[in-house]
Write a structure and sequence with these properties.
alpha+beta; 109 residues
Length: 109
């Protein structure tokens, strides 16, 4: 195989891999448009926008262990976030604190 052909093949592979990585890094392909029950929330995790995913993602775990994503632009979600007194974390992943009563505290990245 000629060296020009090898370079084109390598470029094609690099383009395919980078394109796949750009679209596959967000955790939430779909978001819910409402909160089902505030008392049923066990944990809330907030993932800020990064170079891999260009939007903030809010992942909620309910008391039965079901995880789902919420739309961060909804008024009810914003009210939930302000009511939960966020704590600052310096770790690469969000830190989640839960109390014994089942109410969740959030930590931002």
């Amino acid at each position: 195989m000629s060296s020009i052909m090898k370079v084109f093949l390598l470029l094609a592979v690099v383009v395919c891999i980078s394109e796949a990585q750009l679209h596959a890094q967000c955790l939430c392909p779909r978001v819910r448009s409402r909160i089902s029950s505030m008392t049923d929330i066990r944990e809330v995790q907030i993932y800020e926008a990064t170079i891999f995913c260009d939007r903030m993602e809010i992942v909620v775990t309910n008391n039965s262990g079901l995880r789902y994503c919420l739309n961060p632009n909804l008024k009810a979600v914003q009210k939930l976030l302000t009511a939960m007194k966020p704590k600052t974390s310096t770790t690469a992943r969000p830190t989640v604190h839960t109390s014994s009563t089942g109410s969740a505290n959030i930590a931002r990245m």
